[in-house]
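#struct-pred

JT: dropping the chains for the assembly here, can someone run the whole complex?
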Amino acid sequence: MSRANGDATMPTFSKSAPHPKERRIILANAEDPDFDGTLEAYEGRGGYGELKKAFGMTPEDVCKEVLDSGVRGRGGAGFPAGMKWKFLDRRSGKPVYLICNADESEPGTFKDRQIIHKDPHQLIEGMMITAFAIQAKQAYIYIREEMPYGARILDEAIEAARAKGYVGDNILGSDYSCDLVVHRGAAAYICGEETGLIESLEGKRAYPRIKPPYFPAALGLYMCPTIVNNVETLCNVKHIVAMGGGEFAKIGTTGNTGTRIWCLSGHVQKPGYFELECGKATYGELINDLGGGLLPGRKLQAVIPGGSSAKVLRAGERFTGKLRSGEAFDWGIDDIPLDFDSPMAAGSMSGSGAVIVVDDSVNIVEVLANINAFYAHESCGQCTPCREGSLWMKKITGRMVSGGARREDAALLASIGDQIAGRTICAHGEACAWPTQSFVAKFRDEFEAAAERNPDEWKNREFRLV
Amino acid sequence: MPFEPSSELAAYAEKVVQRYPERRSAIMMILHALQREQGRISLEAQEWVADFLEIAPIKVREVVSFYPFYREHPVGKRHIRVCRTLSCALNGGYAVCDSFKQAFETGLDEISPDGRVTIEFAECLASCGTAPVALVDDDLHENLTPEKVRELCESIKAETPAAPRPEPAGETAE
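RK: done, full complex below.
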């Protein structure tokens, strides 16, 4: 039994032996059955050595290594972290804040949970290096309330790190001080959006702020310059300091550096999380090899390549075009490299690295109905197109499932999606529109056929997604 | 009647407010502690929180009513939240939810007749690789099947004494 904590009531999560195709950097300790996540165990493996190394450098040098590493944000947008840090606007002279976004809530994503539960000190070390690099006055971890033990594990790990001088006043005997505090959310998806998260941390409803002018790097928490990074991104900082930005950039491919933890779920034999070098494996390998393939007798219907807000990929679809390098590509789903740029080239996105596989045992209209129910529930209600539109889309897919849909509903549904995307303060507009837009475009016949469904027969179905 | 916080809650609120440069930021942490202690967040308690944080009571209610995990109403002794979202649904989440409901002869979002549980759907619990999942209070139960749910419900029943709610006075008089 291994746990990051001596509390006997604390749950344990199973660990997995590495697949030969995996390259574990972030999960190296976390998944090791002999590693229990305590400070002693972490220090025993050289933990907090990189913090010491960083404190021997200037903050600017640490920032430069992260910029050179090319590491991109692992939370969804894939924006280069070093660039984000560079945007910090210190002209106001106000204190700088660091926030770890541990609100992991994009459906399909469960990687940050593994890190927090099994190797909390890796996150804390990554955060304290980052705090030093950006000279933050105070750091927060915003964790979703659906992981109550995760918050306790982090609280206890921070206390242990504080006692050793890794967190708090005069870190490592230097004159730099920065406290780290765990803040618990309360199950609102929108808190994963960084400006919504900031509002929430200020004690308000998580209404996202409009950018510009409210880029967190300039006007963030308490209108002070603020950096918000994902759990996995912050863990990477430790490894960038360990190996140097240049060496880190050699992992993966150009513009897609480092490893990524992919979360595979849905209709596969062996769902799970796999840490892979960026661009060195494909969706086909993830699904069929690491994930053990589809269930017996089933056929692939669709793949959602990066969390449920990502545009769906239809089985049999071909993706052609030219890469940024000028090289032409012609892919099926199986051929798409697992990185940031390739799913985007295929018209979707890698998002939070959550891959959801849908086989032919379910009705695709019902899959979208399930997704639409999620986004309608999670709209913060601030912008009319998203607040009303997400509910309309839920209603229409709902009647397509339960009977009573009209043939023109497919077109109506698509047009609502078109009227939301690009017309809202935050990306929740796109997040709720993209599934509808892509499902209807790629499975038009199925959506139109919903009008002819016999409601009674459908009502009595054994297996439901809504 | 004005809300009187327990000494633990009052001490916790004093402690947690120190963690932020602005008092209002402590609201979510205080509401979590309050709800854990009281089982719900009453309007009187919200007024106490507002007073403590030096903000208007409506600012507290805005927060309570926005976040799905805060509630003004009571729930059963055990709080069961079944993940409704896609990966769980694809793996039988709805059947799992039905099994919970059958075991306690109750519907969604209400206190079961025996007072033991309230069953709700929750959106993505971030454990899609072990779908379907459900939270029972703080504990995550993974890879659920209707059979596993039946066993789980038996143990909940064994651990949790029934506490049926008395009939409301108006109805018994009829």
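JT: nice. DSSP finds eight helices and four strands in chain B. The mean pLDDT of chain B is 94.
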